[in-house]
Amino acid sequence: MSRQESSNKQIIELFKEYYRKANLKLPEDFVLREFAIQPFNSSTYIRHLSFQKIDDLLSFIEKNTPKHLYYSSARYENPGLKDMESKKWLGADLVFDIDADHIPGCTEVKIWLCPNGHGGTGDQSTCPVCGAKTKKISIIDDECLVKGLDQVLRLADILIEDFGFNENDINIYFSGHRGFHLHVHLDDKLAQMGSEERREIVDYILGIGLSIESLRLANETRGRSRRLALIPRINDYGWRRRISKSLLETNIDDTLKKYIIGETPPSPSTIVSKIEDTIPWAIELSKVFVDEKVTIDTKRLIRIPFSLNGKTGLIVKELSIKNPSVFSPSLDTLSPFKGIAKFTPDVSLKNIRILGRKISLEKHKTHTLELGLAVYLELKGIGKITRIQR
Ligand SMILES: [Zn+2]
To answer: Domains of the chain: which residue ranges?
Structure first.
């Protein structure tokens, strides 16, 4: 087994210990869900698991430490059967994934490593020293997670205000890596929505097919009649409301602001020509960059809240919609591993920001790092933990 494939026993032990005390959050109807795990040292999933009691799941996890742990967004009559048809699909939650690599302007630190021990930062597919194919690693910038959080909160706002979902049926989770998941629990009837219906929801959120004429954001001429555009207001519905919110974040003048928030009544002077140039920008700002593939999939495997993400060792943590500011992309709150570790990197890195820390690493030198950070770096494939002190 090559080094990349073989996981550090100490990390497996840490995961095992975490799961012994973990408070996994499972849906009430968990008996109808398919469970899946990806164990350490295996690239394949163990799928089609089902459990009648939470204790059965916990003892399964105790025996098979998961690197990744999932349940299905779908409910099935027979979730444990292998054949998808025989499972009998009963419906699925509505799930969204906001991944930092979909967010415009998000930056990642790109790292490359070659099998002959060369490495550096940058986007290299072949090693500039020996020509070998490289392994590429990227580390998300903390700023991107903050942007992702803003996106997922905008998404929750759309689902509540535009679609009428109840806030109590919506849960938001940090993915444990570089994004956020949002789950909407649907009643039995809505849960029947197929991929096409779910795609329409995604299109609406992404603003696909948006017509600025039909939103009255541009003048419209039909034959001899002409309809003037109107500045959107916060009390409008749907996209006009979203755009008005975005406009308030721009440098428009105070009179317009007052109009948008409803303090001054409509007047002919509030036609769109005043802010025509700002509208396309406000539309862009109002888009939420959800991953379409995830939402239209009615049989998606989703990470179990409060499990660990095996790419980082971070907790899939729940966020409160009412109190989102509590979330910060910080090692202290997102990693369960406390202590220090000796870590030897395969590559030198200078002033990299990771989860509220700024680190510099020197290739092949032993560093003393916080345990959570060392686990993160090893799972990313940047080096190896040699010793743990707790
Ligand atoms: Zn090389």
So the answer is: 9-102+143-204+290-334, 108-140+337-389, 220-286
Alpha carbons 254 and 101: distance in angstroms, whole number: 36
> Strand, coil or helix: what is 340?
strand
Expressed in angstroms and rounded, the spacing between residue 132 Cα and the centre of ligand 1 is: 5
Q: pTM here?
A: 0.92
Residue 291 is a catalytic residue? yes
Residue labelled with tokens 């609406």: 204
Residue 378 C-alpha to ligand 1 middle, in angstroms? 20
pLDDT over threshold 50, residue 310: yes
pLDDT tens column, 203-257: 999 999 998 888 888 878 888 888 778 888 999 999 999 999 999 988 888 888 8
Find where tokens 């001429």 sit: 221
Would you identify the CATH topology of the domain 9-102+143-204+290-334?
Answer: DNA primase, PRIM domain (3.90.920)
Beta-strand runs (E) in 197-287: 220-222, 225-227
